[in-house]
Fold:
Amino acid sequence: MKLAVSILSSNYDEEETIQRLNATDAEYLHLDIMDGHFVMDKTPEREFLHLSNKPLDVHLMVSNPFSYISKYAAMHVDCITISFETDDDKRGILGYIRSRGIKCGLAIKPETTVCELQDYLEMLDEIVVMTVEPGKGGQKMLDGPLDKISELVRLREEKGYNYKIVVDGGVNEETIEKVKEADMAVVGSYVCKSEDFQAQIDKLRL
Ligand code: DX5
Ligand code: ZN
Structure:
């Protein structure tokens, strides 16, 4: 399983967090962007992303995702994920991300069902199953959304879809067992609030 490390809640400042992450074998830097509207918190302007040696996995928790795309498309980015529960023209935005040569994803809140996503499944590179309410790091993983992982695996097999299944929220050495079927886990505080990032990552890969 691949790992994307979220730098949202860290014991270190942004520059040091990125440098510590660079020294690990994590596959991606997961960048959470919050606007103070779609979720209550607002993330600060990031200044040191250019120092990252990992491709970015951008997770937009914002009400107006379109206005953020150009900025992140200009960086070393693998995928940009928007939140399903925004009112914007999601199909148009996903197509726009694709047209910039970047993978596109949709993130779903714990209460959103796979059925609601149906019309988008064939056009997605990534589906982020939120296992906490979006908006804060360091929350406990919810069990409710976990069934969506096997549902998405089954649908992908049946219909030949190409999306990668990602879980985001509350991943640690105990909860990772519950999300094994996913292709990638986002992990934030378990890594960035520790002294040894690689040691924590090693425990997740066991
Ligand atoms: C939550 C964010 C997550 C979160 C992960 O809204 O999307 O990426 O920061 O952090 P942990 O692993 O601490 O739950
Ligand atoms: Zn996230």
